[in-house]
Sequence to fold (127 residues):
Amino acid sequence: MAKLTQEDLLAQFEEMTLIELSEFVKAFEEKFDVTAAAAVAVAGPAQGGPAAPVEEEQDEFDVILTGAGDKKIQVIKVVRELTSLGLKEAKDLVDGAPKPVLEKVNKEAANKAKESLEGAGASVEVK
Fold:
């Protein structure tokens, strides 16, 4: 039997359906006692169309001030505590709501910031 070149093999794989390729990979794994999981994962979406997106748990959150409420001075104080902003910058942020107060923070920090701002009378959204 003549030895097949890499190009010959690739030409053969190109003509295979996804099911045929999957069966070949399984047989190859059994014959040589190896795992080709990465190859199957790469080959899957290429032949079968777009794969369904995998839902990942969000690990970065933005805390957005949507309104200052009645106690604007208290909200400005809390914004200054949460950020490194000066008095003028914190006031401008509160006056310009809706604006992000914190960006790309973990869930715990986002929830604490939301509680603090809501406790001061502000309306807050976490995205």
The chain has a mean pLDDT of 80. The longest helix spans residues 18-32.
